[in-house]
Amino acid sequence: MCLAVFLTAAVPGTVRGLEPVSALDDGFAVPAQTGLIEASYHYPGAESFIRGYFASAAWSIPFGQSDLAVTTVHAGTSFGNVGVSLSYSGSGFDLYGDEIEKAGLSYRILSAVSCGVRLTRNAMRIKGFGDASALSADLGMVYRPVESVYLAGSIEDITGAEIGDSREPLDGRTRFGVSWAMTGDITLLVSASKVRRFDPSICGGCTVNLFQSMTIGVTGGNEPDRLEFIAAFPFRTLMFSYRGAYHRDLGMSHGFSMSWEAGGK
User: Fold this and answer.
1) Is 0.85 surpassed by the pTM of this model?
2) What are phi and psi of 49, to 5 degrees?
3) Which among 86, 95, 137, 244 is placed 20 to 30 Å from 233, CA to CA?
4) Which tens digit of pLDDT belongs to each residue from 240-262?
5) How confident is the model at residue 65 (pLDDT cuts 50, 70, 90)?
C-alpha cells in the first residue's frame, strides 16, 4: 500500500506547521496546538521546534477494515535547541501483526533549520511462522525560512535493514512536504512520498480556520487516488481531530487523533 504525506495548518492563534499523516497511515488527522506535534512523528527534526512537552494518540481504520486498525502514540519534549521523542505504532489480528517503535533526537543548528535522527525497531509476527524484528535509522530536516512557511523532508531506513530469515527489506519511505499560511486563516499544502517498490504519491489541498474555534480542510492525491476531509476542534489544551479518506473502489477510511501540549512559550 502506498501511503501519502499530508500538510495542513494549525488552529487559530497558534504556530502553523506541518501535518504529515494520512488516515490511511497512522491515524493522525490534523495538527495539534503547534502544528508540529503530529508532524514530528514522521519528520525527525521537528521536535526541536516544539516548546515544552507534547503528546498525541491516534487510531485509524483503513478502508473500513477493523482488522487493519492502527493505534499510534507519540510523545516528547524540547529544551534549548534540542528535542527528543518516543513513539509506538501497532496493528494486527490473530493471524498477523506488526509494530514500530521509535526514539528520536533533533537539534536546531540554526534558528530556521533543525536536523534529526531516529532509531527505529520494526517487528512483525505471522501465526505459524513466528516473530521477526529489525533495527533501522531515519534522518530528517525541517526548514522554516519565515513564520508562515515550513519545508520538511525525511529518509527512512538509511541502513538498508532486512527482516526475518528471508531477509526481506523494509518498506522505507522518502517524504517531502511544504506548507504556506498565505493568510491568517488559509493554508496551502503540497506533499509527496515514495515507498520502495511503489510509485510516488503526490497530494495537495488547503485548510481553513473557521469561527476562531475549528479547522476544516480538503486534500486530494494519487497512489491511491483519494479525497480526504479534515476537521479539528480544540478544547482547552487538547485538540481532537478527524480525517476521512474516500477511495472510489475501496471505500472510506477513518482516522481520529488527540494531541496535547504544555509548557510552550
Assistant:
1) no
2) -85, -10
3) 86
4) 888 888 888 888 888 888 888 88
5) confident
